């Protein structure tokens, strides 16, 4: 399975990082919403293109975080993954924050300020972890190409949002 298909299939953003350097991705399942929020709606906003684009990009970033967390280990590939993720995350942080803010407003309206990325992930019906049925070879291949993947245009969320909205994010 190609890596891009793997991430799209996972449609997986909570880009939660630790406070310690270097930046490490954590599985979203490890982050819990502060309080159970009830989304005014769930799923994708297929009739609202601006929201839909943010939902898709949020899912893409979520997938990146899940894969980064799964590949993070004290091995050469794991260290390369960690460093690539930290660099990518630093470059995407403003786009991610904008998507989180806007999607919280979309799903939780008056409670948006209390919504976490985990709440948004739940409202989008995204998976909280990578597919456990992935083979060791598929994971090894995905981790080995992770850094290269993040250099691709499809993972430059800031540029994609700028192209779509016409204004620089961040």
- How much of the sequence is in beta strands? under 5%
What is the overall silhouette? globular
Using only C-alpha atoms, the radius of gyration works out to 15 Å
Let me know the average pLDDT. 79
Poorly predicted parts: 1-24
Number of strands: 0
- Helical run tally: 7
The major β-sheet equals:
none
Order of helices and strands: HHHHHHH
Number of domains: 1
Terminal Cα span: 34 Å
Structural class comes to mainly alpha
User: Helical percent range?
Assistant: 55-70%
Kindly describe this structure:
- By secondary structure, this protein is an all-alpha fold.
- It has one domain.
- It is built from seven helices and no strands.
- Helix 2 (49-71) packs antiparallel against helix 3 (76-108) and helix 2 (49-71) packs across helix 5.
- The radius of gyration is 15 Å and the shape is globular.
- The termini are far apart.
Brief account:
It is built from 7 helices and no strands. It has 170 residues and is an all-alpha fold.
SSE blueprint:
Elements (H helix, E strand, L loop, with lengths): L2 H8 L38 H23 L4 H33 L8 H7 L12 H9 L1 H5 L6 H9 L5
Helix pairs in contact: 2-3, 2-5, 2-7, 3-4
Main attributes?
170 residues; mainly alpha; disordered N terminus
